[in-house]
Amino acid sequence: xxxxxxxxxxxxxxxxxxxxxxxxxxxxxxxxxxxxxxxxxxxxxxxxxxxxxxxxxxxxxxxxxxxxxxxxxxxxxxxxxxxxxxxxxxxxxxxxxxxxxxxxxxxxxxxx
Amino acid sequence: xxxxxxxxxxxxxxxxxxxxxxxxxxxxxxxxxxxxxxxxxxxxxxxxxxxxxxxxxxxxxxxxxxxxxxxxxxxxxxxxxxxxxxxxxxxxxxxxxxxxxxxxxxxxxxxxxxxxxxxxxxxxxxxxxxxxxxxxxxxxxxxxxxxxxxxxxxxxxxxxxxxxxxxxxxxxxxxxxxxxxxxxxxxxxxxxxxxxxxxxxxxxxxxxxxxxxxxxxxxxxxxxxxxxxxxxxxxxxxxxxxxxxxxxxxxxxxxxxxxxxxxxxxxxxxxxxxxxxxxxxxxxxxxxxxxxxxxxxxxxxxxxxxxxxxxxxxxxxxxxxxxxxxxxxxxxxxxxxxxxxxxxxxxxxxxxxxxxxxxxxxxxxxxxxxxxxxxxxxxxxxxxxxxxxxxxxxxxx
Lengths: 112, 397
Prior knowledge:
- The complex is a heterodimer.
- By secondary structure, chain A is α+β, with helices and mostly antiparallel strands.
- Helix content of chain A is 24%, strand content 16%.
- Chain A has helices spanning 2-12, 14-19, 65-69, 95-99; strands at residues 33-34, 51-55, 75-77, 83-85, 105-109.
- The radius of gyration of chain A is 17 Å and the shape is elongated.
- At the A-B interface, strand 1 of A face strand 9 and helix 8 of B.
């Protein structure tokens, strides 16, 4: 079971966070403060995900609503105009699938 | 202390003494909501702001929760802030108090101590601030209007010290101190400016920096962030002493983290806090005159708790009596009792301890009450035994 969990965590990218050296209390800026702007990009919330969005390009009209609605800016346009989730940041909330007017996004379970 | 400075002897209530000190401290932001018996502090400050005597923003908020939140935000933007409250108002601030200390905002707040409902009571005891003793704030408890005034100024110096950066609450007993007129020596503003840290303070909300304040502390980081504030209150110990000593040099008055008398040959001692300690002192003095070896201790700084100072002072005593004007229902005794008792927990030779709970909800503690407490301490010393650990003095059967 533990092995399975470990494999799952590794697949989700959680391992990347765990590998980073955690700072001691003397090394952190005081006052629950983060002094590095944009550093949330380093935090891969994709590890929380239990469902991932899978885009069907046959149905997709490239309207961009999924991109507008995604609360984590994880849904991003590719060069050909189709949208794909960045799985480092997609936490699988399903808002993209819900907002897609043509039903082109399916939420697929991560646990198979 | 022979300090020659111009100080105006002024008749002030404890509350007006707070307002006077805040005026001299040149605060930038005052956010407050009225509550008895604190109201006249912020009423006076509102008047000063309206009359242009203080150049500050006065934010009349809709609750105490907002008052402390506004002070927190303003403080993070580098403003010197002030608020005051009591009782239910302090309880309503509760969650923000933890945030203020860990965010390291040097807010100064006066508490005109009042009991908590129910039953509804506007009268004095120490329940309100005692319930906030674990919020990470520094707590100073004054015994008279002069000390109230002096403590507010000391509070700003302690809070804003770059090695501390913690909020400080100055406690004054509701009515007994808040509404009683006493002579207070008020120094000139120029000297106060010299005593207080220079402005501007650290502005963490400046557009030049892009800090995120009050971040999420996931399990990997919460512990470390919380510990920083624990470390800061430990480091505040030397700064509190320094602020008091420098104040003494400049203005001729210093108090220490505790006050004590008749301790050299004492066999028993009574510990109290706040204005009731002055009655305790007079009662103990009378027993001294009759030859009883009773000592007097008043704890002035309750957070950080002066454990080492008290251990040095109290070791060798036969019995220590601790008077609490607050309760911790279901516990062995009141909060001050619990705190003092732990000082000796690892010592083989230790004094016996005894708790008195009195003066709840504004009930007076008269000399007869203190006579009883002292008599019971002497009895316990003689028998080398404490028969009742916690006694409720002045409670009707």
